[in-house]
Amino acid sequence: MAHPLLRIDDLVTAFPREAAEPGGPPLVAAVDGLDLTVGAGQVVGLVGESGCGKSLTALSVLGLVPPPGKVARGSIAFNGEELLTAPAARLRQLRGAEISMIFQEPMTSLNPVFTVGRQVAEAVQAHLAVSAREAWARAEEMLAKVGIPEPARRARAYPHELSGGLRQRVMIAMALALTPRLVMADEPTTALDVTIQAQILGLMRRLQEESGAAFLLISHNLAVVAQMAERVAVMYTGRLVEEAEVGQLFAEPLHPYARGLLACLPARAEKRGQRLPTIPGTVPAPDALPPGCAFSDRCPQRFPRCQEAEPALVEVAPGRKVRCFLHHDRARTRQGLAA
Amino acid sequence: MSQGYQNAEPLLKLEGLAKSFKVGTGFLGSRKRFLKAVDGVDLAVLTGEVLGLVGESGCGKSTLGRLALRLLRPSAGRVFFEGADITDLGRRQLQALRRQMQIVFQDPMTSLNPRLTVGSLLGEPFAIHGKYGRAETGRQVAALLEEVGLRPEHARRYPHQFSGGQRQRIGIARALALRPSLVVADEPVSALDVSIQAQVLNLLMELKERFSLTYLFVAHDLSVVLHLSDRVAVMYLGKIVELAPAAAYTGQGQHPYTQALLAAAPVADPKRRFRPPAIEGDVASPLAPPPGCRFHPRCPERQDICGQQEPPLREVEPGRLCACHFR
After folding, report:
1. Chain A touched by B1 (CB under 8 Å)
2. Where does residue B281 fall: left (phi above 0), alpha (psi -120 to 50 degrees), or beta otherwise?
3. B247-260 exposure pattern, b = at least 16 Cβ within 10 A, e = fewer
4. What does the alpha-carbon distance between residue B295 and residue A325 come to, in Å, rounded to a whole number?
5. Counting CB atoms within 10 angstroms of each CB, which of A325, B72, B91, B216 has the fewest?
6. pLDDT at B279
7. Which CATH number goes with the domain that contains B55?
8. With a CB-CB cutoff of 8 Å, which residues 34-63 of chain A face chain B?
9. Given this model, what pLDDT does residue A57 score?
């Protein structure tokens, strides 16, 4: 049986409670029961607001959850291979070569005291038995491929000598140097100006198509995800609340949170200057969630049951999952009619 | 949102405004260089309007906002507020003027003193301007908090006890304490999450109506600026390249840079597939801006003249200004 490239099942990534009350739960789940699948060559968008657990999901895949946080439960399978129980040496083999990551701020993720060429070459040498000369040649080739002008000269530049856009191109060159099968890009264009963002998005799309790598694109920017992803998963308070094909989600979001997020974008307002629809309140802290559905305290459509039990993530149509009682009932009715 | 401002006098008028910063002073001052953040800007903000100022990092939009409030002293040019020249006012005179002109900053976490309670933070403007006694200040602070959607009891808390959106409400309350007529909002929602951004934008629009405010709204996000503003000025490397009513941009920008900005902004609609980047390259350094039109090295329509002569900002349609040789 063919395995999906990445399959996350019931992932719980948790942190110790700051001041644990006696008898209270010792851990707070920042990612709570997440299921997510990325097929080979697919571009999946993972969206949500700050603190929803989207970056932590990627760090969990890489085995890089910052301590004292840890994965408390679940399974992460890459090409059928369980990563959560894999030895550290195996994870090091996979990281960079098979699964790589592009971070938001290349200024903090590149080493300021080495030239960018050396950093890309080092990534190559960490995984392939090649000479320093060959690794350097590969680095220059990658810098050219990501559209850095005068790659041979720029390879000798230090990160601070490059603009933000060029630095992000270096990060992409490093992430793709070993033709990984999965690239996780965490807010890759958030720190960039809009004209540079457009260049980087165009570059990522081109490289994705050429390399056939799967991308997990993590972003708070719904417009970026709309333009890049095939499928989109929406997270709220560590949970997936909706997952759909990109066209479906943007045409008809089902979960009230997803609806609210889309409605409040100024670009989607019907009239200039009109009052924007809003989601009342703020995202609750992970240790202060309302009872029942985690969105129930802000939901304009809640009814009593929402505060009694947490809805499950249910497939309401092929390829479309929603964590909301409103749609569960609809799905059940549909199934009932079919039966 | 803009009833009858058409005949209004400019509340704020900037003439030939420029600001250079000395940077990179080498060892023993051997290599003085000047960064021209703002370079010859003429702009009028009319009473009661929202004038949006949009551009990418380093274009000078924030510097322009600070010059307008005389938080910075211009290197050249004049600033007029309500018809009076405020370019050369001294500290004391400026302090009196600040009742009428205020600023909302991008990141309330860094602009609010973490050691003061919200009550003290909001009471400060009244104290500085000697407006009220203690009891009355308390009442005013409570009223301010309610105006921005917070509760009077929040006055006892410290900034870190609030969420980002609530902190921005506090920043707005502080700016409004003395009932200014002009508010410069410098990226007021860029640090906020999408759902909170909409709440704060709504609040800014409500307050504008309630207190008859005039906004100079500085931001990099075109969709936000176009939604809120009556007119929008686009800046590139210290210059205004286009100025037009916000509605005029929904069709298309006139200046090639505006067009590129509009094309580069991704749309939250997967059916409208994103076109490849309209312009290549990076913004030139303001330390060494290109000669002629500053946008010409990146412009898809450039001709020889663009590298030689700087295009003036002139009217290309009624009410629409553009700085391009070919418009």
Report:
1. yes
2. left
3. ebbeeebbbbbbbb
4. 54
5. B91
6. 76
7. 3.40.50.300
8. 49-50
9. 96
Residues B240-265, mean pLDDT to the nearest whole number: 91
* B164 belongs to a structural domain: no
Give the DSSP H/E element, type plus range, for residue A329.
Answer: helix A325-338
Give the B window 273-292 contacts with A, CB below 8 Å. Answer: 273-274, 276-280, 282-283
d(CA A59, CA B187): 31
B108 domain residue, yes or no: no
CA distance A96 to A179: 9
- Tell whether A239 is covered by a domain: no
Scan for tokens 């559905």, then name that residue. Answer: A293
Chain B contacts in chain A segment 273-332 (CB below 8 A): 273, 275-279, 282-283
Residue the block writes with tokens 């009230």? A256
- Assess if residue A335 is contained within a domain: yes
B205 part of contact set with chain A, CB < 8 Å: yes
Residue A262 in any domain: the answer is yes
B contacts of A224 (beta carbons < 8 Å): 266
Q: Which of B1, B268, B276 sits opposite A265 (nearest CB)?
A: B268
Give residue A117's pLDDT.
95
Parallel, antiparallel, or unpaired for β A231-236 and A43-47?
parallel
* Contacting A residues, span 124-183, partner chain B, CB-CB under 8 Å: 163, 165-166
Pick from A254, A256, A190: nearest CA to A221:
A190
CA distances from A263 to A117, A257, B177, B223 (A): 44, 10, 32, 14
Q: Among B163, B268, B280, whose Cβ lies nearest the Cβ of A282? A: B163
Q: How confident is the model at residue A84, as a pLDDT? A: 94
Q: What is the pLDDT of residues A69-106, one digit of tens each?
A: 999 999 999 999 999 999 999 999 999 899 999 988 77
> What percent of chain B has a predicted confidence (pLDDT) above 90?
67
* Residue range of the domain that includes A336: 255-270+289-339
Tell me the pairing of strands B182-186 and B101-104: parallel
Domain count, chain A: 1
The pLDDT confidence band at residue B272, using thresholds 50, 70 and 90, is confident
Nearest residue in A to B190, CA atom: A190
Which of B153, B175, B142 is closest to B162 using CA atoms? B153
Confidence of residue A284 (pLDDT cuts 50, 70, 90): confident
Give the whole-angstrom CA distance, residue A54 versus residue A70.
15
Number of domains in chain B: 1
What domain range includes position B235?
10-100+178-322
Q: By the CB < 8 Å criterion, does B263 face chain A? A: yes
